[in-house]
Hints:
Elements: H1 45-57, H2 69-74, H3 82-94, H4 99-110, E1 125-126, E2 133-139, H5 144-159, E3 164-170, H6 179-190, H7 195-204, H8 212-221, H9 226-233, H10 236-251, E4 259-262, E5 265-266, H11 274-290, H12 345-348
Parallel strand pairs: 2-3
Antiparallel strand pairs: 1-3, 2-4, 4-5
Helix pairs in contact: 1-3, 3-4, 6-7, 6-9, 6-10
Amino acid sequence: MTLALLNFKLTTCRSPGEAGKGPSPSPEATTLVALPGVDTSNLTAREKREWSSYVTELYSPCPDQPVNIAQCVKESRSCDLCLPAAKFLADRVRKGNARSQVESAFRTRFAPDQVKSVPTDNSPVKGPADAPVTIVEWADYECPFCGRAAPALDKLFKEFPDKIRLVFKNYPLSIHQNSEIAARAAVAAGKQGKFWQMHDALFKNQEKGLDKLTIEKLARDLGLDMKKFKADWQSEAVADVVARDRKEGDKLGLEGTPLIYINGRHFKLGQFDFGKDLDRWVQLEIKTRTGKSVKPAKVAEPAKPALPASSASPSASAQPKAAATPKPPVPTHVKMPPAPRLPPKAASSTK
């Protein structure tokens, strides 16, 4: 992953990830910082200096506390995110991230201006309306990365019952032959109250292929009224839903799938590890919004291959699915052109 390098020499406190204008002391001249609640014992001397520079140069994530993170923690300021931010920075230093990577990830996770308004109306949803955490995902049913994300998100949903609201949006990529008809099939199934059942069935059968006959069989297996399903599947109303979801993804700058937002903040798979960071991200959101720490319930591991690590390329699926089950293809992270609006021939034959 290529990230623009930020100016290493900084002097003043900055908003998360924001570069300063003047030179800063050399790492060797940085005064070592010790903060209550942050264990830095396993950091090397160099890493401690790096971490100390971050917590003294970066501002608190709370706009009403315009002090650096170290001061915020030491003075127990009214900002529940200061201590998690300090721990986050220590973890990034421990992982060996470059300065540009640390600051970029910190900004993504904590900068107030990174929270966006993400539409959730008229989309399939499960979980209570007043859940403290809302996760919105744009996905493609033939995207191999989405196929791995689906059971992981389902597991997360079960780990935190009553705490997560999961919203799904379609973004079929034109490089995937059947992704458009699969997306419309799920929307059509939703008109009979079985969106999530079709959603799960499509992802479970992803590796077998999602052609017209396979999707029709899935619909029959779900007990759908096939006459209504086929009519809806080919309807302009269903096509409009898919087009609307795609347009919303475009507005957020979607460049590949899956695209995930948690409480309006982008969970960038190029910066964060799906397997290791997602649980911690959600737990912090729950604690921040409810004031209570919640441990995940025990849930069986999903029977899917491991998700790509954060050291891989960004979270896009921009190459066709591999034939068997080798190492997942490296996505190219490029924005794909929109798929045709009219139903493909395969779908039109279902009349």
